[in-house]
Amino acid sequence: xxxxxxxxxxxxxxxxxxxxxTVAAVLxxxxxxxxxxxxxxxxxxxxIVTPPVIEKSFWVTADHVSDAYIQQMxxxxxxxxxxVTPDDIAxxxxxxxxxxxxxxxxxxxxxxxxxxxxxxxxNISTYFVLQTIRTSPERLTAVITGRLHTLINGNRVAxxxxxxxxxxxxxxxxxxxxxxxxxxxxxxxxxxxxxxTS
Length: 198
What we know:
4-stranded antiparallel beta sheet, alpha+beta, Nuclear Transport Factor 2, Chain: A, single chain, about 45% helix
């Protein structure tokens, strides 16, 4: 047996084992780092509630959203409040409350319960025909303008132009409704252009 060849093979095997040990140590360190990062991110991700139909692409961060997101969410919420019949008011009210910020939840539930009673009692249906939507993404607000049609027992009794202000709050990438109110034209201009002089 050639002892020199044996020694060379032994050294080569030791070097190979050393390289494999180094690679294994690096892989173990990468795996540990990945697990630490994953545990840090766990719980930070939130589900973003979106309208059922997404018409435009949008972006969302923890505290800010794109103009398209404000538009689509505002239009979706407006249908839950303004397009109602005696048959679907209860369902739409329940769905609406899922989008409400906890601060608004109680007041909104009370308002929707009273509205549902009135709509069912008087057999009222309403629908809103949108004319314009203006948004202020930095303020997380939208103003929708259109005609609100009201029918009682199937007969049209009102057709009025109305403005509605919709305000949102972002909570970990999820938009939560904090206000949905009727606004006058003067209020709309002031809300969308706070620096404008009257």
